[in-house]
Design brief:
Helices cover 22% and strands 33% of the residues. The chain has one domain. The two termini are 31 Å apart. The protein contains 3 helices and 12 strands. Helix 1 crosses helix 2 (121-136). It is α+β, with helices and mostly antiparallel strands. It is globular and about 45 Å long. Strands 1, 5, 10, 11 and 12 form a 5-stranded antiparallel sheet that branches. Strands 2, 3, 4, 6 and 7 form a 5-stranded antiparallel sheet that branches. Mean pLDDT is 79; it is low at 106-122. 36% of the residues are buried. The chain has helices spanning 86-109, 121-136, 153-157, and strands at residues 2-9, 17-26, 35-40, 49-51, 56-57, 72-80, 142-151, 164-166, 169-171, 173-174, 178-180, 183-189. Strand 11 and strand 12 (183-189) form a beta hairpin.
Length: 200
């Protein structure tokens, strides 16, 4: 579940920062055959969230993945709106994500396409971050930063991660600081468990 973002430092330009994020989730054992990319605050439009130093936004809070426990990789790319069309940026990041999945998998396992399931997900994280960053840098909107993090199977079936709170958000996971110049942000997520009981 995407919970929101918090501004630890704005860009310092005139007016508020007009922020949005593109978030992609995929299962490393299935690569680009099983992934989901959303834009927040509004997935299908060009909306942004006005932010400045110390503010928290929960605009666009939404489910970003649903499924059985499995290793997941979450890629977060954070932008400050300038001249681009935010909905088009989602398409560009999604394409970079698909290319990054293939490139990262080949870099780790070679061209034979060995499955990337299980604990090997952590090997893909830095490679995917580097690929996405290189492919969206220089676009018309200001790229604040991009980060890729892993949510492992054992976190979803073992003891629940502690829930923390900030500015109206309840979260279990967060990015590192996403920074560019004076701008400094974090994006927050919450793991939700739902038990399914099958009738015998």
């Amino acid at each position: 579940m995407y919970e929101g973002m918090h501004c630890f430092g704005d860009t310092g330009g005139a007016g508020d920062d007009e922020m949005y994020a593109v978030i992609a989730v995929y299962t490393p054992d299935r690569g680009d055959q099983s992934h989901n990319t959303v834009k927040v605050p509004d997935d299908g439009g060009d909306g942004t969230t006005d932010m400045n130093h110390g503010t928290t936004s929960t605009d666009g809070r939404r489910e970003i993945w649903s499924g059985p426990p499995q290793d997941l990789i979450i890629s977060v790319t954070l932008f400050e709106h300038d001249n681009s069309v935010p909905s088009a940026m989602k398409t560009l990041v999604d394409a970079a994500m698909i290319g990054g999945i293939a490139a990262a998998g080949t870099a780790v396992f070679g061209p034979v396409g060995t499955p990337t399931a299980g604990g090997l997900a952590y090997l893909l994280v830095p490679k995917l971050t580097e690929f996405v960053f290189e492919n969206v840098l220089g676009l018309s909107d200001d790229l604040i930063d991009t980060e890729t993090l892993a949510l492992y199977h054992n976190e979803q079936v073992g003891p629940m991660p502690p829930t923390q709170r900030l500015g109206g958000m309840s979260y279990t996971h967060a990015t590192e600081l996403l920074t560019n110049g004076d701008a400094s942000y974090k994006v927050y997520f919450r793991l939700i468990r739902e038990e399914i009981h099958q009738e015998l």
